[in-house]
Design a protein that fits this description.
Layout (H helix, E strand, L loop, with lengths): L1 E5 L9 E5 L7 E3 L3 E7 L2 E5 L13 E5 L1 H18 L10 E7 L4 H13 L15 E5 L4 H11 L6 E3 L16 E3 L4 H14 L4 E7 L2 H14 L5 E8 L5 H13 L4 E5 L2 H13 L6 E4 L1 H4 L10 H4 L3 E5 L7 H6 L10 H11 L35 H20 L21 H10 L1 E4 L2 E4 L9 E9 L5 E10 L8 E3 L5 E2 L3 E2 L21
Parallel strand pairs: 4-7, 4-8, 8-9, 9-10, 11-12, 11-13, 13-14, 14-15
Antiparallel strand pairs: 1-2, 3-7, 5-6, 15-18, 16-17, 18-19, 19-20, 21-22
Helix pairs in contact: 1-12, 2-3, 4-5, 12-13
């Protein structure tokens, strides 16, 4: 962050000033009366630098541009612009933002969090002398990254609203007192997965998870939910966060040799992308995948080449919503409007396979303007049923409604000491958190609020990966999990709509995925 140093000019040498020790360029910036930070995994893997201590190490290089996460960032920008144009919500005030890339990894997530705190330059940030201009952070995606961001923000009492971190660990208010989220707690998801496994008599299953808190807590919760059922776990395997081919091949050998052909996976697309590449190279088929919400709507796996290996996957997705202006807004993000933004250049290269910068050294052909969307990223412009993007949208509006309520405070009737209110020109983040904890509002017909742990109401759509008209994977809604229903009544499934692995429908597949049930001796789940 900042290092206080003595100044040899004005102010006097005894004074302290702040100097940034490094810089990290944001993806998008907008000025306003009040600033929100945004952290998104705009890339999904990393290239670690050489840690030779004889010279200053270069920054971590981020690879694997993720158009889906880029859409989430644009949704935050859209929400801010809508609010700034509203005559009812925060009239006479404007919101600004600093949006950074976490690269889908805790180390680079830490870098993004520090960059959000510091501001863009010494001149832009009075952090060392007064209230921070940053009132809240919208982020992060993965639970491992959010864990790091939460711990960094906690000493400054800056609230964060996550749009995709579902780990049950965040309900611990002692360790994460400023954490909120608009995605359900994983305790509900593992209950839903356990009910699904029992419903379809999946007696033997394998568990595969990422090497992070999200995967660890999810597996612990699932094992707890499976106690007392007839579902047994044949194996548990951990995918390294940083790709390791030897370890990957060892996991694949376990999966290939096991008679358990149902595999529950708690992983993000970052670590799973190279894993599935080897899975396909090894030509492993016949696995019935059961996916968590982190994977079930990952557009990177919807291309036609994935269908023979992942077709039939079933899992629980975030409840979809509606963002009326998103499609038009996404079309305004182009290299002509953002000439010096490298992220927009990467977006164009990923979506269209061409170089919009007319660079002579590029390995890609120059864009002509006539290109069509590449198949694997066509989901970027599909805004018919936004899920994570809708969560981002709700998170920004939760912040705005909370700030709006804070600014309506009448002196003498406030919630703070001596019935005081926050000062509109010097708001502290902890004052905003008071209003965030109590906010309730409606958006697109849905009520949004938070319980005392910062959690939201638990709803999931049950999604099934089926072959689309063009051979690609499409998400078909086959049911619902409603966490507000009485125990045992939460799961609603249209079984006749399900297509299982091996391209079998439920009607014609009453036994096709159960042939392995009695092939291994049972053992207790501890």
């Amino acid at each position: 962050m900042y290092t206080p140093i003595s100044s040899n000019t004005s102010p006097p040498s005894s004074a302290k000033v702040c100097k940034l020790q490094n810089s990290f360029e944001p993806g998008f910036v907008a000025k306003g009366d009040y600033i929100i930070g945004g952290i998104f995994p705009l890339h999904y893997n990393q290239e670690m630098p050489d840690l030779n201590c004889t010279y200053r190490p270069p920054p971590v290089k981020c690879n694997g541009f993720d158009p889906r996460a880029f859409r989430w960032a644009q949704t935050m920008r859209l929400a801010v612009e809508e609010i700034n144009q509203s005559a009812e919500l925060l009239p006479n005030y404007t919101l600004g933002y600093n949006i950074f890339d976490s690269c889908g990894y805790p180390l680079t997530g830490q870098r993004a969090a520090l960059a959000v705190l510091n501001g863009l330059s010494e001149d832009d940030s009075p952090t060392c002398s007064g209230a921070s201009p940053l009132l809240a952070v919208i982020g992060e995606s993965g639970s491992a990254q959010s864990m790091v961001v939460s711990r960094i923000l906690q000493p400054f009492r800056i609230p964060m609203i996550s749009y995709f971190s579902s780990c049950a660990c965040f309900t611990d208010r002692k360790n994460h007192p400023t954490f909120f989220r608009v995605i359900p707690n994983d305790d509900y998801q593992v209950k839903a997965i356990a009910q699904l496994l029992v419903r379809f008599n999946f007696t033997w299953v394998g568990l595969v998870r990422g090497d992070h808190e999200y995967g660890r807590f999810a597996v612990q919760g699932l094992l707890r939910e499976l106690q007392g059922t007839k579902v047994c776990v044949a194996y548990q395997e951990i995918i390294p966060m940083l790709y390791n081919r030897q370890r990957t091949l060892e996991i694949l050998q376990v999966m290939r040799s096991s008679t358990a052909k149902v595999v529950v996976v708690f992983s993000t697309e970052g670590e799973l992308t190279p894993f599935l590449s080897d899975y396909m190279t090894q030509n492993i088929t016949g696995i019935q995948w059961v996916a968590s919400e982190a994977l079930i709507t990952a557009s990177v796996f919807t291309a036609s080449e994935y269908y023979p290996y992942l077709g039939g996957t079933i899992g629980f997705g975030i409840r979809k919503g509606k963002i009326s202006g998103l499609s038009d807004y996404l079309q305004t993000v182009n290299p002509q409007m953002y000439l010096n933004n490298t992220l927009v250049k990467e977006l164009w290269e990923a979506l269209y396979g061409c170089d919009p910068s007319l660079s002579s050294g590029s390995l890609l052909p120059s864009c002509s303007g006539q290109e069509s969307l590449l198949e694997q990223h066509s989901a970027y412009m599909n805004t018919s049923s936004p899920r994570v993007a809708y969560n981002v949208y709700k998170a920004v509006y939760a912040f705005a409604h909370s700030l709006h309520n804070l600014l309506l405070c009448q002196p003498g009737s406030g919630p703070f000491q001596y019935n005081s209110c926050a000062q509109s020109n010097n708001i502290y983040p902890w004052q905003l958190q008071h209003y965030l904890q109590e906010v309730t509002f409606n958006i697109a017909g849905e009520e949004v609020n938070f319980d005392l742990d910062g959690d939201s109401i638990s709803y999931y759509d049950i999604l099934n990966w089926q072959r689309g008209m063009g051979g690609n994977i499409e998400y078909v809604n086959v049911g619902l999990f409603d966490g507000t229903k009485p125990a045992g009544e939460e799961l609603l499934i249209q079984e006749d709509r399900i297509m299982w692995a091996g391209h079998q429908s439920e009607a014609s597949c009453s036994h096709c995925v159960f042939t392995f049930i009695h092939q291994m001796p049972a053992f207790e789940i501890l």
